[in-house]
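Objective 1.3, modelling of assemblies. Example input:
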Amino acid sequence: MTDATNSPSTGPMLSADGTPLKKSLQIALRRQKLRALALVAPLLLFVLVSFIAPIADMLFRSVENEIVSETIPRTVIALEQWDYQDGNAAAPSDDIYAALYVDLSEAEEFKTHTRLGSRLNYETTGMSSLLRKTGRGIGRMDTDEYTKQFEALDPKWEDPAVWVAMMQSPGIADILPETASAWQSWQRIVANKNDVLAEEQPEDFIYTMLYRDLIAQPASAIAAYSGSGAEMLQAADSAVDGFEAISLREQFLDIDKDWADPQIWGTIKAFSSPYTAGYFLSSVDLQLTPAGIEPQPENQQIYMLLFGRTMFMSMVIMGSCILLGYPIAYLLSNLPLRTSNLLLILVLLPFWTSLLVRTSAWKVLLQQQGVINDILVWLGLVSDADRLVMINNQFGTIVAMTHILLPFMILPLYSVMKTIPPSYVRAAKSLGATNWTAFWRVYFPQSVPGIGAGSILVFILSIGYYITPELVGGTTGTFISNRIAYHISSSLNWGLAAALGTILLAVVLLLYWVYDRIVGIDNVSLG
Amino acid sequence: MKSKLATLMCGAALAMTGVHAQAADMADSMTIVSWGGAYQKSQINAYAEPYKAMHPEVKVIWDESSNEAVAKLRAMNEAGNITWDLVDVVAADAIRLCDEGLAMEYDPDELLAPGDDGTPASKDFGDLIVSDCFIPQIVYSTTFGYRTDMVGDTPPTDICHVFDLEKYPGKRALEKRPINNMEWALLCDGVAKEDVYDVLETEEGQAKALAKLDTIKNQVIWWSAGADTPQLLADGEVVMGSTYNGRLFSLIEEQKQPVAMLWDAQVFDLDGWIIPAGLPADRLARVKDFLKFATDTQRLADQAKYISYGPARKSSAPLVGKHADLGIEMAPHMPTDPANAKNTFLYNYTWWADYRDDLDAKFQAWLAQ
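Predicted structure (C-alpha cells):
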C-alpha cells in the first residue's frame, strides 16, 4: 500500500487540461455550491431580515435593562458606594439624593421618569406612582432658596450669558464637577424646548449643584481658577458657608416618604446594570431582590406550574390526535381515490373555518346548557341538577384543541401511508401472519415517520396556542402562552414576555433534540 | 327634529368656516381606533358622520384595535411609524400610555370646546380628566345582570348576593382579573367602602379578598371578553354575571332577554381618546379639529342615543334624549342616573397603576391553584 502511493509513476490523477483531477473537481463543485447559494440567497435574506432578526430582537429584550442606567445615570453611579443590608440599611446620603435630583430634573423634561417607574414597578409595587409623583414635585422643591441666595449675592448670577461663558471655560469641570455634569442636562433640556441656551436662566438644580460644589471644594481650588466668572465664583465661595442649606433628602421625603425606604433604593441598585437576569428569574418563579436571588412568595408562583401544564396538556393533545388521526388516515389511504378525496375534504373543511368559530362551536356543544348536556339529560343519563362540566377546564381545552389540530396529524400520516405498498401486508399474510401481526410488524413500522411528523407539528403548534385555551380553558386549562400574551398586550412587561418565550423556545429545541436521539429526525416524513 | 338638526348643522358649518381657511394644512384622512361593535357604531353615528358631512374631503378609517392598543402603539413607536391618529382607550390604559410617553399631553381648555353653557372644558369634564393625556368621552360602569327567571321571587338587590350561594345557587360570571373583583369581595367581607384600598394594600387584606372569592370560586365562570357574560346569561349558563352596563342594556332592551340589572356597587370607569405622541403637524391639526367637534356638549349627548353610557361632560347630561331606534328614554339606563347610582364604587386609577402587576400575579396564581 505504501509502495503504491509513494511510487512516482502513479502520481495525482490529471484531468484533460493537465490540472490535478481533485482540484478541478473541487473548482467545479465550488462553482455549483456558489450557484446554489446564489439561488437561495434571496429567500435566506428574506428569512433573516423578516423572521430571525425580529425574533432575536424580541428575545434580546429578556436581558436588556438599559432604561435604568440611561434615565438616572448619576444615581446609578452614586449608588455604587451604597450597600443594601436587609432591615438596617443605612439611608442613602445626600449625595445620592443630589444625583437623583439632577437625573429626575432631566428625565421629567423628557417624560422618561414615568417609563422608568413602570419598569421598576414590575419589581417593587409603588414605584410607578412614586416616580410620577416625584416628577410632578421636582420643579417645586425648596431649592429655589439657593437660586435666590446666589442672586442676592450678585445679580449677575441671574444672567444666562454669564453662565454660558463660565461653563465653557476650560477647567471648570475640575472645580465644579457636579455643576458641569448638571449643565449638560440643562443643555439638553433647553435644546428639547427649542430655546436658546444664552437666553434661559438655569433652573434651581444648577444653583443647587453649584452650592454643593462650592461647599465641597477647598477655597484654594476656586482661587486657582482664572477663567470666565472667576471673581463671581470666588465671592460666592466665601459666601456659601453662610447660605441657608436645604436638605435634598428632606425635599424628597416631602414629596413622598417612600424615598426613605431602603427597599426602593435597593430595587434601583439591583436593577441598575444594563443587562439583567431579573426577567429570567421571574419566569422561573424566582426574584431578584436587593438582598439577592430569592424564590417568589408562594402566592405568586405560577410560571413553573404553567410551563408544566403546557407541556403535559400538549402531550395529551398530541396523544389524542394520534389515537383519533391514525385510524382516519389509515381509512383514507386504503379507500378508492374518489371516496378518499371526498373524505379528505371533510378533514380539511374545519381547517378552512375560522379558529374562533370552531372554538365557539365547542362552547355551544360542551357548556352546561349546551347540546351534549341537553341530549344526556333528555336520554336520562344525567340528571338535570348535575349536568356535566365539560368546558372552562382542562377537558374543554383538550377537546377543542385536539379537534383544531387534528388535520395536522392526519395529513402527514395520510401522505406517508399512501406510499406504503399494500403488497407488503398481503405478503406478510400469505406467509402466515395474523391480521394483527401483519399490521403491527409490517404496516405500523412503515407509518412511524408519519406519526413523527404529525406529532412534532401538533406538539409545537399546541404549546404556542393561546386563543383556544383563553376561550375554553377557564382557570385550569390555560397555557403559558396566555401569560405571554398578557405581558405583551396588557402589562407591557415585554422583558418578562421575552424571557418566557425564550424558555419556551429552549424547551422545544431540547425536546426536538431528545426526539432526534430517540426516534431519529431522519425518520420523520411528510410523505 | 329634522329642522333642529339642520339649524344645528348650519350653525356648526358657519362656525367652521373660520377654520376652513387653514384646512389646507390638515390631513385629509384620519385613522381612528376604537372597540368595534355597538360602541364604535355609536361613535360613527354621533361624531364621525356629522363631521364628514361638514368636511366631505375627510376620509375616516376605523381600526378595531382598542383591545391591544397599548401594545400596538408601543410597537409603532419603536418602529417610528405611527399610523393611528386617534385612539379610544379606557382610562387605565391612557394612564399607562401617558407614563410610557406614547400619548400626547394636552391642555383641555385649549384643545376642547367649552361647554354649551360656557363652562371651560377643564371644569366641564372636571375630575374625569384622570391623566394629562386622557380626553374623557363616556362614563361606563361594570355591574351585574341576573336572570329574572332563575332567582325566584326575591331578586338580588345587594352586591353581596353575588357571594351568597345559598340564596342564589348557580354559576356566576366574573372577569378574569383582580380589578373590581377584589374590591367587591372586600366590600362583602365587611370592609367599609372608604377603607377598601387601604385594606387591599396589605398582604392580609389581599388574602382576605381572595379568601372571600374562594367561597364562590368553583361556581364562577371567568370571562375575558365583554361579550361573554351577555352570552352566558342568554344561554342560562350563569344566574348572574358582571360586565359593562351597555352590554347588559342591549341584552335586556334590544334582545329582550329575561335579564335585569343589579346596579348595587357598580364600579364607574371611563373611556376616552388619546392622541398618539409624535404625529406630523398636518395630521395633528386634523385630529385636533375633529376632537374639538367630537367632544363638544351636543356630540357627547348625541352618543347616548345609541348606547347607554353616560356622557363625560356635565353640560351634556340634560341633553340626553331617547334611544335612536327603540325610542325609549335613555336617562334611566345611564349608570349615572340617581336611581341607579345609589351605591357606587369609584375605581382608583393611581392605586391600580401601582398594584396591578403585583395583584395580577397573585390573582392568576390563585386562579391556577
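Chain A is about 65% helix and 0% strand.
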